[in-house]
């Protein structure tokens, strides 16, 4: 029983982690679609 | 470390600042280490190993979309990252009796930053940009990396010392 619960919790953690990554991606994409932000980020890497 | 620097060759002549890119690589390396080190036990068996490429792809895609930066730099993070951290419960990959193991890997990020920045700056000194962007240079670097990787005296000096002692006694 303990093993099953542990496995279920691990898979739940994985799902939450993946959902967090998707949310991070979507929010960051919304931010960088702003041309002002994109130009600033570009300036960081290009001389 | 030399292998992790090779993706930097893809940015030669593209106007990307090597030092800033090296800082981004070291930053993501540290972030990944600080994130996956404490959380590795919470993933399913070998789950962290499968999630890690997605994690890198996310950051590569973000900077690709935001700055138009080709995502080769995440390969450097992948090559730098210690694979033992991603084994969820196979803790034998991480020596328990070495308290400096984690901090050693943290310092490796700083080492890579200095190494990659300095080496890329040295390559930029080539006035004609004739040799350092050619496949010959890349293969030379790969040869040096593989040679250093396979050199037995670097990998296990004690073992070799023991073998030499045995040979001397027999």
> How many helical elements of chain B?
8
* Secondary structure category of chain B: mainly alpha
| Strand residues, percent of chain B | under 5%
Distance between the termini of chain A: 59 Å
Rg of chain B: 19 Å
By oligomeric state, this entry counts as heterodimer
Written account of the structure:
The complex is a heterodimer of chains A (47) and B (170). Chain A has 47 residues and is mainly α. Chain A has one domain. Helix content of chain A is 89%, strand content 0%. Chain A has helices at residues 2-32, 35-45. Chain A is rod-shaped. The mean pLDDT of chain A is 86. Chain B has 170 residues and is an all-alpha fold. Chain B has 2 domains: 2-129, no CATH class; 134-170. In chain B, 66% of the residues lie in helices and 0% in strands. Chain B has helices at 2-5, 18-39, 47-67, 73-80, 101-124, 135-150, 152-155, 157-169. Chain B is globular, with a radius of gyration of 19 Å. The relative contact order of chain B is 0.17. Chains A and B meet through helix 1 and helix 2 of A and helix 2 and helix 3 of B.
Condensed summary:
Chain A is mainly alpha-helical. Chain A has one domain.
Itemize the secondary structure elements and their pairings:
The complex is a heterodimer of chains A (47) and B (170).
Chain A: H1 2-32, H2 35-45
Chain B: H1 2-5, H2 18-39, H3 47-67, H4 73-80, H5 101-124, H6 135-150, H7 152-155, H8 157-169
Characteristic key phrases:
heterodimer; A: 47 residues; mainly alpha; 2 helices; B: 2 domains; 8 helices; 0% strand
């Amino acid at each position: 029983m303990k093993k099953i619960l542990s496995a279920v919790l691990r898979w739940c953690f994985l799902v939450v982690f993946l959902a967090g990554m998707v949310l991070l991606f979507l929010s960051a994409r919304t931010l960088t679609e702003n041309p002002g932000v994109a130009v600033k980020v570009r300036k960081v890497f290009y001389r | 470390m030399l292998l992790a620097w090779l993706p930097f060759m893809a940015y030669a002549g593209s106007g990307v600042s090597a030092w800033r890119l090296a800082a981004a690589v070291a930053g993501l390396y540290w972030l990944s280490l600080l994130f996956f080190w404490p959380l590795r036990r919470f993933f399913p068996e070998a789950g962290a190993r499968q999630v890690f490429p997605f994690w890198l792809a996310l950051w590569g895609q973000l900077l690709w979309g935001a700055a138009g930066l080709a995502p080769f730099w995440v390969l450097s993070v992948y090559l730098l990252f210690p694979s033992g951290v991603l084994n969820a419960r196979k803790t034998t990959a991480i020596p328990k009796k070495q308290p400096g193991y984690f901090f050693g890997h943290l310092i490796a990020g700083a080492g890579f930053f200095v190494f990659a920045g300095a080496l890329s700056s040295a390559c930029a000194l080539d006035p004609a940009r004739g040799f350092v962007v050619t496949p010959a240079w890349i293969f030379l670097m790969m040869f040096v990396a593989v040679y250093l990787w396979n050199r037995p005296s670097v990998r296990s000096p004690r073992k070799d010392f023991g073998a030499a002692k045995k040979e001397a006694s027999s």
